[in-house]
Design brief:
heterodimer; A: 653 residues; alpha+beta; 7-stranded antiparallel sheet; 6-stranded antiparallel sheet; 22 helices; 20 strands; 49% helix; B: 310 residues; 6-stranded mixed sheet; 4-stranded antiparallel sheet; 6 helices; membrane (chain B); DUF58 domain-containing protein (chain B); transmembrane helix (chain B); transmembrane (chain B)
């Protein structure tokens, strides 16, 4: 009756659970109010202290009373207890209090199970590869704690957890890929839109795009299906700015979309992965089809139908054409011609030049030539402008960045009686050889103008920057502007080639991550199923086919491992059985109960050579097995090998 | 245990040795496992609602862990051999200790819970590569041969998520002796009482040797043998011609006396005579147990099985 193991929780197991829960919640420190995380950690530490000191737990009513204080504070600081921040913070607090009242094995198990749920909450805020690494760490520590709760030591638990992870990860991967993804949420949840956005500003004033250029952060990635358009055609529109107030261009929200059509060019299909910026997604000039989940915004833009904070992957379609045909109503025409007072020199100049030109297009050509010929400079550090900024730029400083050129051309056009607007977005991109995709960065931000030309009957893209600095369009901002070149932090020197290669690899890894992990949705899953030949669409039949094929692969190691134990006798015993089997095959009748001596006497009927060899083996076996007290692994292995090599002549019956 | 399950267990064959194979291993999730499945479902719903791909990965990892746990739990029991060991006899009203030996193949770090069905759970951890006899107590209310109840062997190692169990009925039984009931008729002081008859049929005749017990007379010690063996050995006398041996007999009691009472008293007297180192002889209607090796065991066994078919 001795040695009965009580199903009680050891101190080390309980501490392991607390530690694992702390690991699970750790990333939340970055996303929640600081005091919530601090309180959570304090509660876990308090529970750990009561464990190590063997103290009792506070009574439950007291806990219930105390819990109301931080929950009230939470309400005051976040104004909500639902949604992402509120819900997660509330859950974190309640989990901390649960830790303070765990006592029985069952309590600890519940805490551990809730720890798994807690592990999911940081993913609501961040799904980077780092978050995935942390998730792995969390899973590992929770699994080890689970084994410790079941009575294993830390070492044994770690072994069991490691084995479980090695055998379980293929299965989890299979389920990840094959279990049907539903296209949308089950119910709508309140969303907080206060996440920081880095990207194009709401308005375009001198300097608003230039400040993005030194920032080499990735903006979005593109994979072209089939033809890749030349750099001069890779204009990604994000915003259309159509009202000028004398200082900045902004969007006035007064345009009603009309029927529009694009002529010329060939359709271009592409996959775009981007994090929507206030719902806005880049669209290649000019979009002609709407991807799933995206609606058209005025100005031929893409706008997410449902807000999303995570990266999305859409399939876009564009016509690489020249003209966006769109009729303008008189009211629209007037709107696109509206100008604020000021900038008299530009106004006068534009009217004069238009009167001298034969048509809108000849005027446009003349205006661009002016940019090209009159010593305009393309620079990130233009002299500051004040007052009539267009006048100042065109007649005095003549140095500026794309927003100066785009803004002043649009101004000139309006002054000349040509409807115009400014488009901001991205232009160009860098090809990643490793991942075979185009990486567009913040430094590719660009602005250009669109003019409504009567003879074309629609909008025509005009990029005055191309006139001033053609290489900006062909090769991107980096070679053109020193500030946009990748450089080493602190030192400021140009980055060596190997570092650029490393960066490309990192980008490729990120791209793969966005494509296959973060952006793996119903659509992506359909494509995978089609690619694997499981059938069109994700249905019962195709999922079953996938589970059968993949399940066999993923389960094989598991089954092998589960069944392997049957042959897990010590090597010496296995070799002994093997020898017996060899004798039986040779025609010697051997019984299971026979020892070495019986076997020797039975083996006498073998041919002389064989008998001598068997006899030597048996002698060695006796020596190994019975003579010495200590095992001699080397000799045992040698004996096993000798048995494996033994060949006996088969006797006639 | 519910009735259908009881019937199912009763239908199991009695085995001398049970080797657990896939067919007789049952696997069920534990409460903890069920809780974790609920958590996986919650994570999955969250992943769906918020469109969080990595949370899907977490939910599926939990499911995979459950599947792996099934294999783990199965592996704990597969190939295990359970064999009964001799059970420790007991007196009625005490508890019998049934013993089993676990023969664990391979080098798995096993953790097993053994339970006689209907009895208290007993949990045991068995380290690898060993055959450890385990004893399981079981109440023995009445004398006779007590068959070993069905045995459940279970394991939920290593995570406590899935429980693998198997039920076996082992061919083993334990002797339950009658509960001794005081009966002082053999008191030496009461020799004149008439009821106690001491046999004095001639000279003492050597019967056998036994290890020395406290109370053995010095002249009974077999000195020469003791010197050879290095431990004191005492001579026992008896055989057909007992002298000074107490006769402990069925017929000492009136015909109207209840069988169980009679057996209890006989048992008490046998134990007492043995304790005093007094030669004795038990006489029953179907047996006559004189001094011989393991006399006490045989006598108690005869009392336990008296009137019962074996």
């Amino acid at each position: 009756m001795s040695g009965v193991v009580q199903p009680d929780v050891t101190r080390s197991a309980a501490s392991a659970v607390l530690a694992a829960v702390a690991v699970a919640g750790a990333p939340l420190v970055f996303f929640l109010p600081g005091w919530v995380g601090a309180l959570f950690v304090a509660m876990l530490v308090a529970r750990g202290l009561t464990l190590s000191r063997g103290m009792g737990l506070p009574p439950r009513w007291l806990l219930a009373l105390v819990v109301t204080v931080p929950v009230g504070l939470l309400w005051l600081s976040l104004n909500t207890l639902v949604g992402r921040e509120g819900g997660v913070a509330l859950f974190l607090l309640l989990l901390g209090f649960k830790a303070l009242e765990t006592h029985t094995l069952r309590d600890w198990q519940v805490l551990l199970a809730l720890g798994f749920f807690l592990a999911a909450t940081p993913l609501l805020f961040d799904q980077s590869p780092l978050a995935a690494l942390w998730l792995m760490l969390t899973i590992a520590s929770l699994t080890v704690a689970m084994a410790q709760l079941a009575g294993f030591s830390l070492h044994g638990g770690a072994r069991a957890a490691g084995r479980a992870m090695a055998l379980g990860l293929p299965l989890a991967l299979l389920l990840f890929l094959l279990v049907p993804r539903l296209p949308g949420p089950l119910w709508n949840l309140p969303r907080s839109d206060n996440s920081a956005t880095t990207g194009l500003a709401e308005e375009m004033a001198p300097g608003s795009i230039g400040r993005l250029i030194p920032n080499r952060a990735p903006a979005f990635t593109v994979v072209f299906d089939g033809r890749t358009p030349p750099p001069s055609a890779r204009y990604w529109r994000v915003r259309v700015l159509d009202a000028f107030d004398g200082r900045a261009w902004r969007y006035a929200d007064r345009v009603t979309t009309r029927e529009s059509a694009v002529t010329g060019g060939e359709p271009l299909d592409y996959w775009l992965t981007a994090t929507p910026d206030k719902g806005r997604l880049p669209a290649l000039d000019w979009p002609i089809a709407l991807p799933q989940g995206v609606r058209a915004a005025p100005g031929s833009l893409y706008q997410m139908a449902v807000p999303a904070n995570e990266a999305v992957r859409i399939r876009g379609r564009s016509a690489g054409g020249r003209v966006l045909h769109e009729a303008l109503s008189p009211a629209q025409r007037a709107f696109y011609l509206a100008l604020p007072p000021g900038n008299p020199r530009t106004l006068a100049e534009a009217r004069q030049s238009r009167a001298a030109a034969v048509s809108d297009s000849t005027w446009l050509k003349a205006s661009l030539d002016r940019f090209r010929l009159q010593w305009f400079r393309y620079t990130l550090e233009p002299p500051p402008l004040a007052g009539d900024i267009v006048d100042g730029f065109l007649f005095e400083t003549r140095a500026g960045f794309c927003e100066h050129y785009a803004g002043s051309l649009a101004f000139l056009a309006r002054a000349a009686g040509i409807p115009s607007r400014v488009v901001v977005g991205y232009q160009g991109g860098e090809y990643n050889e490793v991942g075979r995709f185009w990486q567009v960065r913040s430094s590719d931000a660009h602005a250009w103008a669109e003019l409504w030309l009567a003879e074309e009957g629609g909008w025509v893209r005009v990029d005055p920057t191309a006139a001033v600095s053609p290489e900006r369009i062909e090769a991107g901002a980096a070679p053109t502007l020193p500030a946009a070149r990748p450089s080493l932090p602190v030192v400021g020197a140009a980055a060596p080639d190997w570092l650029r290669g490393l960066e490309q690899r990192w980008m490729a890894a990120r791209f793969g991550w966005e494509q296959w992990v973060v952006g793996f949705d119903a659509e992506r899953q359909r494509a995978l199923f089609a690619g694997l030949g499981l059938g069109q669409g994700v249905g019962v039949a195709s999922v079953l086919r996938g589970l059968l094929a993949g399940g066999a692969l993923a389960l094989l190691p598991l089954l092998w491992w589960a069944w392997r134990r049957r042959s897990q006798a010590p090597p010496l015993v296995r070799a002994w059985r093997r020898l017996r089997h060899k004798l039986a095959v040779a025609g010697i009748r051997v019984q299971d109960s026979d020892g070495p001596l019986e076997m020797r006497s039975r083996a006498k009927s073998l041919p002389d050579d064989d008998f001598r060899r068997v006899e030597a083996l048996l002698k060695a076996y006796v020596a190994l097995r019975y003579r010495s007290r200590d095992a001699d692994p080397a000799a045992e292995r040698a004996w096993c090998r000798a048995v494996a090599r033994l060949r006996l002549v088969k006797m006639r019956a | 245990m519910s009735r259908p399950r009881k019937r199912l267990v009763a239908r199991l064959p009695r085995e001398r040795e049970a080797r657990l194979s896939l067919r007789r291993i049952y696997l069920v999730p534990t409460r903890f496992g069920a809780t974790l499945i609920v958590v996986a479902l919650a994570v999955w719903i969250g992943a769906l609602n918020y469109g969080v791909s990595l949370a899907y990965a977490l939910a599926f990892w939990i499911v995979a862990l459950m599947i792996v746990s099934v294999a783990f739990a199965y592996r704990q029991l597969a190939g295990l051999v359970i064999a009964p060991q001799a059970a420790e006899p007991a007196f009625a009203g005490d508890s019998v200790s049934f013993a089993v030996r676990l023969d664990i193949p391979g080098s798995a770090n096993g953790r097993y819970e053994l339970r006689l069905l209907g009895g208290e759970a007993e949990s045991r951890s068995v380290s690898h590569d060993q055959q450890i006899p385990l004893s399981l107590p079981w109440p023995a209310p009445e004398r006779g041969r007590l068959a070993m109840p069905p045995l459940e062997i279970a394991s939920s190692a290593p995570f406590g998520l899935v429980r693998a169990f198997s039920r076996v009925r082992l061919a083993s039984d334990a002797l339950v002796y009658p509960r001794p009931c005081e009966d002082a008729r053999d008191e030496v002081g009461a020799a004149g009482g008439g009821d106690t008859r001491v046999l004095r049929t001639g000279d003492e005749e050597f019967s056998h040797l036994e290890p020395y017990r406290r109370g053995d007379a010095v002249r009974r010690i077999a000195w020469r043998v003791s010197a050879r063996r290095g431990a004191l050995v005492a001579k026992r006398f008896g055989g057909g011609t007992l002298s000074g041996a107490w006769l402990i007999a069925w017929r000492d009691y009136p015909a109207g006396c209840d069988t169980e009472t009679r057996l209890s008293r006989l048992a008490w007297r046998v134990l007492r005579a043995e304790r005093l180192g007094q030669p004795w002889r038990l006489h029953l209607p179907d047996a006559d147990i004189a001094a011989r090796p393991r006399q006490l065991d045989e006598a108690l066994a005869a009392l336990a099985c008296f009137g019962k078919r074996s």
